[in-house]
Predict the structure.
Amino acid sequence: MRPLQTQLTAAEELKSYFSLFVRSLKANFAYRASTVTSLITAVFMYAVPLLVWRQVYSQNPGIAISKAKMFPYLLLACCVNYALGMSVEFRIGQRIRSGLIATDLLKPIDFQLSQGVQSVSDGLFNGALGVVVFLCGYMALGPDIFPASGLSFCLFLVSFLLAFLIQYFVCFVFVQGAFYTYSGYGIFAARGALHQTFSGMAAPLSLYPPFLKTAGEWLPFRHTIYTPVSIYMGWTQGEAAVSLILQQIAWVLGLWALGKILMVQSLKQLEVQGG
Amino acid sequence: METALHVENLSKSYQRRVRRPGLLGAVAGLFSSQMEELHAVKNISFSIKRGERVGLIGENGAGKSTTLKMLTGIIVPTGGKLEVLGRVPWRERRQLSLNIGVVFGQRPQLLWDIPVRETFRLLKTMYRIPDEVYQVTYPEAVRRLGLEPLLGTAVRQLSLGQRMRCDLAAALLHAPAITFLDEPTIGLDLSVKEQVREYIRDMQKRFGTTLLITTHDLKDITEVCDRLLLLDKGKLLFDGSIKDFVRRFANESRIVAELHQPATGPALKKIASEMKKYGGKIVASEGHKLIVEYRKEGAAPALTQILLKRQRVADLTLEKADIETIVTRIYRQPLASKGKIPT
């Protein structure tokens, strides 16, 4: 009879998460047709808002942000949004619905962290699509899309990393609803709508009407796109940039803790569907 | 022997929204908050020692899978106590999972989009399987379950039977202290079922794994287990050895006779009335076939003699009720009388 196994050490756990990450990345390449479709969609998704804004600028040349700033912003917002692309909600939601969540919960690793690791692999995969968009943008806009300075770029990297964590933890908090409703589509759609509205993905938040701007300041979504891109472009610098990064850290910690608490409650009432 | 798991007055109830039939009912359901309580498991108690091989059977909806889910810690009981390897499963699920293996027949734990081999490697890391164990369990699973041609195939491209074999291998790779198998032979053809049972049996012997199997295929139980738990509508109706189960409930034996001429009318009545004296009852007379059931011990010679005297018999066999017959009979009994089954 084998002696009972004791808890994994931190190093062993790390090895497990890395192993899961690698396999998750491989799984992302499993569907060739889907990869090509995503690539085409990526280019299309950038092209449409660009055309809309071009039209807007041709009719209203006096917009607060110049065309030379706006287009790079939109391009970078699109790239960042791509790198934030993760299928965590879809994945967990589907597994709750089918009862496959049972097999995830039987693994000797932390559920929140393991989903996070898989989301990082999603992000890397989608980030590669973002790079393609960036290169297309470079051909169209030239060096305007480069960072304002070396420091801005470094701060952007930190801010982007935090943006990724915020995005993941927001998704994780929202997906908890699926443990109660067993169909997460409504909840995911709501999260998606909030993201689209308040992240700054469609336009810089400085252009928003005051009430929406105020609402956005109280929510975490602006820290996913607007904050890192505005730092990259040098619109926010020095202390202001550091202050935004600190706000991001606060959101990461708060959302992480909230996700943990909600998960405990969700599991208490979980019914594994389907016998 | 050390206790592997202990269950005391374990219960699980669910709240279900009451749904009305039809499209209008479905729409009305959106606005209705009427709920009903379903009791999936009702106050069951049992203990299993390390190394035991236990079968958990019951009709659909008897509470087998719910019990298994509580034992593995993925759902929380609404009442009672349970401990698995000295841990409360739902509170210490992660720690417990290192020492248990689980197969949910209809829910593969394999990663869907990548080759089977990749999941095995991941599990080796995740369960911290020592080389000396992995060098036994991995090649053994590959050889015994015929996995070699499947290792490089993405899981989604496997048939149900192939997936089941891979899933079973995955659950036993770390030679767990307890293995919970929920319908491990579902979807398998007869020869593969045999292969799977043999593999489970051998792995159990080699590593002393405690087994708890739920199944609808009673051969899984008779060929792998030596103890049986019978659940019905959430209640535990029987807990004991399989031998004991058969001895206690196989109180009906049968004589199956093949006659030269079909027995009909007064001849059949005559046989029936003579057999009644010895506790025999004709339960079927179809063409040349005649089936007599009896409970009294030692009645077989007298009943056989009556048959041989009254009819020209071409062939004759004596049958003791097997576990399948007994279980089917118990399932068919009304619940009230099931409650009277001694345990």
Notes: Chain A touches chain B at residues 1-2, 4-8, 12, 15-16, 19-20, 23, 26-27, 30-31, 98-103, 105-110, 267-272, 274-275 (CB under 8 Å). Residues 111-141 of chain A form the longest helix (31 residues). Chain A is about 75% helix and 0% strand. Chain A has one domain: 21-268.
